[in-house]
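Write out this protein's structure.
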Amino acid sequence: MVTAHFVSVLPGGKIAVGGDFAGYNNVSSPAFVLLDGQGSLIPVEDPFDSATVALSGAYNKKSNILAMTGYFEQDHAQIISSGAKLVFPIISSVSDFNAHATSESSMELSWTGSYSGADQIVVERSTPDQSNYAKIATLLPSVTSYQATALNEVTPYYFRITGGNGGYAGTSLEDHDTTAIAPEVSLAATDITTSSFTANWNYLAGTDSTMLQVSGDNFATFVPGREHLITKSGANSVTGLQDGKAYQYRVKRFRNEKVSDYSLPITVNVITGMEGSNGMLDVHVYPNPVGGTLIVDLPGNSVKGTATIHSVRGELVGNYALGEGSHSKIDTHTLSPGMFILTIYNGGSYRKFKVIKEQN
């Protein structure tokens, strides 16, 4: 290089140097070199090929344009302007690209990492194979998820994301092959007794079958016969359970040899809907049905007790301290009309009552 006329600092620590470069037979021509942070040359395309005696330039960070102007000697003195768009390498740290169905017509795409040097992320989709990719979205480079909609269930979809810079694609590409098949929606349990309940779910149209799982420890182990139960309905009676224990159930569905994710689990607290006890606890509860205040009479020589109220679905809706002897009061004004399970605990024993709440 004979003379350097400008130096511009570019994204990623790169440096552009423009000037008059010595060529064949000592003829100088305008050009620029691109250096990395250690001063090593980075290959770029040189758009200039004319002799010159002067050169100046400027860099636009927003559009990645490097513009250069020179006074050329050929034929007669004239001012010629030219420019070049620099495309810098896009470094990808994107990984864990996943897609899963969130409904019968949508899928959630997610990934981790980023495309360094990119100003956008392009999302593309192809179906039924990988030969028909079309852009469906342009995202900011900081985005790490996208909801693809207007899909058809049980149709194969291929998605890919690419980091871009002003229309230029990065070198990294992530592909994922998946099929949109939505999980069924688990519904609240019904018919809860001391040893059973009915698991319910929304049996979606077009479902071939459903697999039900029931567990008492968040699916580490399973209730016998309910580890991989296949059924073709939207309900199943689960029996042989332990009174007072919490259980969980979930379902996944099958259609056209495809399988969905599991539904969100439902928790059921197994508790009786009828009177029951363990031991000889002498306690009286009245009035029943109750509109406002419920009276609990414990034996005169008993210690202080406690009481809980659950909905028939096993949800705890009240927890109370009881005094010694008779006429402990439980305020039920805040409860909605319906059936509840009252459990009285005293001296290591308990007794349960079905209580009907009326309008206040």
